[in-house]
Amino acid sequence: MAEQQVLLTVNHLKKYYPVKGGWFGRVTDYVKAVDDVSFQIRRGETLGLVGESGCGKTTTARVILQLQRPTAGEVILNGNDLCQMQDDQLRSLRTQMQIIFQNPYTSLNPRMTIGAAIAEPIIVHGIAHGNAAHERVAELLTMVGLNRYFAGRFPSEFSGGQRQRIGIARALSVNPGFVICDEPISSLDVSIQAQIVNLLKRLQDQLGLTYLFISHDLRMVRYISNRIAVMYLGKIVEMGQSLDIWKKPLHPYTQALWAALPLPDPELEEKRQRIVLQGNVPSPINPPQGCRFNTRCPRVLDICREVEPPLRELEPDHQVACHLYDWPQ
């Protein structure tokens, strides 16, 4: 991957939350929400991040944006290591990175008009004031498919899909180059989800945006993403081109995720072999030794219970962390 093409680099990112107990509230353990995650995102592409609830996807997003400080690691955006910056230094970089939140019903202030909500970051960052700010709000509303005269209305007057469009307009108000989409369609009706994803794709083409797209909807991730990273219990277990991972998933966990998707053909659905995972996801406080998937993996080996497999490139631009593909070093 050529360095000049890379917008975001995440190196060995960790986020541990202390667990306190006992009479004196001492730290007794840590929740390893994100544990040694590394990836890069090229300019203008979309990296899809998938995995079960609680695997660390949203925590990864919040740490990248420095909404929560990491325990260790690097987050390099446009050559700047965000983890080494103080809050006042980060302020000037906030315009380069934004987030679209999961739930449009809670991410908008019900006491602010949508015009005021969209204008707030524009004014705070000194991008525009007065009539110029109002014109920018009107332009953004039109850009996301809403009437510019809606600016004086309150969030309660809009549907979920419309509110998410408002959230997108607010995220784009400061002209960011990098946007994290944190499950932006999970709380919307199925009929509206495709509209929002198509809007995001159109805006990406129009504005040259770079996305980290987090979702449980594997088909939507495949549709919008250039590359996909699969996360399990705080670690990335597979990463590669979207089509490659969809057609030829290598990790047993990725294979199980794909096998859980229903097929539109009833005959094929009835004939295909199911992959049933046993047990529950282990606790991130005390993850299994070796491969973290070994307690549920249908193809587990003895080495899987002892040695953690590194994320290695098995095929061009296709990485997997699994002992099934070990080769001499």
Q: For this structure, what is the CATH class of the domain at 93-225?
A: Alpha Beta
Strand order in space, largest sheet: 6-7-8-3-9-10-12-11
Please state the average pLDDT score. Answer: 91
Flag low-confidence runs.
none
Strand content: 15-25%
Largest sheet: 8 strands, mixed
Tell me the span between the first and last alpha carbons: 22 Å
How does the helix and strand content classify structurally? alpha/beta
Would you write up a description of this structure?
The structure is a single chain. The chain is an alpha/beta fold. The protein has a domain at 93-225: P-loop containing nucleotide triphosphate hydrolases (Rossmann fold, 3-Layer(aba) Sandwich). Helices cover 29% and strands 24% of the residues. The protein is built from 10 helices and 12 strands. It has helices spanning 57-64, 87-91, 114-124, 130-143, 160-172, 190-207, 218-224, 242-247, 252-259, 266-271, and strands at 6-21, 26-42, 46-50, 72-77, 80-81, 97-100, 178-182, 210-214, 227-232, 235-241, 312-315, 318-320. The strands form 2 sheets. It has an 8-stranded mixed sheet with strand order 6-7-8-3-9-10-12-11, with helices on both faces. Strand 11 and strand 12 form a beta hairpin. Helix 3 (114-124) packs across helix 4 (130-143). The radius of gyration is 21 Å and the shape is globular.
